[in-house]
């Protein structure tokens, strides 16, 4: 798998059942949806630090670049190591990496896609930037909104979605997965026009 158009799509989150339903794990949930669409399942990567699925994201018969779906097996603030290991292993340039992550500054239920930029205090992005040596990769930013009242943002993102949000969550996951597919097939400009509302 070393053709130039390989894409590495990584969902940022924390491993283990205690974190499964938290806002910080939206990246994992979106990768799960993409895995379902690809019709496979994640397997341990030989580095032992990530789970991956290799394949193509496109309707049957449609031309599609190869993609590697990945989830780090480390905590969020150490995501960069496993991501850069996968990027080296599959010969993927940072400009062909898409990170899916939660974003406090965007309202719940909304998405933003962008290329490059800072980490905005997000530990997963901070770790990726440090390990890759650049911030020049794509981001699919799934809004979780700001914590209510004086709640600490760290506690908020590690908390579970509210009952109301849980009803809406499948739509957000679906949209984020669509945005990933659109980014690969159509590029950033069209993806932003369709999904950055």
TrEMBL record:
GO cellular component terms attached to this protein's record: cytoplasm
Compartments, as annotated in UniProt: Cytoplasm
Keywords: Cytoplasm, Hydrolase, RNA-binding, tRNA-binding
Active-site residues, Swiss-Prot/TrEMBL: 24 (proton acceptor)
Record's keyword annotation contains Ribonucleoprotein: no
Membrane-crossing segments per the record: none
UniProt-listed InterPro entries: Pept_tRNA_hydro, Pept_tRNA_hydro_CS, Pept_tRNA_hydro_sf
Keyword tRNA-binding: yes
EC numbers: 3.1.1.29
Functional description taken from the UniProt entry: Catalyzes the release of premature peptidyl moieties from peptidyl-tRNA molecules trapped in stalled 50S ribosomal subunits, and thus maintains levels of free tRNAs and 50S ribosomes. Hydrolyzes ribosome-free peptidyl-tRNAs (with 1 or more amino acids incorporated), which drop off the ribosome during protein synthesis, or as a result of ribosome stalling.
Protein name: Peptidyl-tRNA hydrolase
The species this protein was found in: Nocardioides marmoriginsengisoli
Lineage of the organism: Bacteria, Bacillati, Actinomycetota, Actinomycetes, Propionibacteriales
Gene for this chain: pth
